[in-house]
Structure formats: C-alpha cells, structure tokens
Give the backbone structure.
Amino acid sequence: MEILPNDFIIRRTPDESILERKIEGAKETNKDEELVNVCKDFEAIFIHMMMKEMRNTIPEDGFIEKSTATKIFEDMFDEEISKEVAKKGQGIGLAKMLYEQFKRQNPSL
C-alpha cells in the first residue's frame, strides 16, 4: 500500500504520477489484480473530482460560515465515499472499461 503525501487531500489536483507508477508496476509484474486495483483507484479519483464539483454548486451563504476544518473534513469524507463506491461491485463502470482497454492495448498484462 502506498502512503499519499499529507497535502494530497488539501490540493485541488491529484498527483497523476502515483497512478502512473502503479500502472508501470502492474506492467512489470504482469498481475491482473494489480491492474484492476489501479483502474479502481482511477475511478475513485474521478468520482471524488465529480463529487467536489457537485459540492461547489451548493451555495455557501447559509447561517453558519464554513471553516477551513469543515471544508477539509467534507473533502476527506467525499474522498472516502468515492473510494467505497469504486471498490464495491462494479462501481460506476469506469474501472471496468479502463481495464478492458488496457488489456486490449497491452496483451502481455
């Protein structure tokens, strides 16, 4: 398991190099399971970005102003929900499509 840097959650753009390293690792070891996990990780990142954009559509002019801690908590919550959605069953189907495409382009995987 790879530990993400502390600022990974706070930054607005995920570190693509982590996914690239995982894909290269899957190519080197020729493990289908590892490739599936990388595809699910990508799907989780996609879902997280989608949830973040959906949350941005909610007006913040309520009774109580959101603190930085609240914003960080909501982002962490959305990230965990995204991971669970991607890992359970078929997720939203993006991981499956990515896996099939990688397998077609790289039959040695």
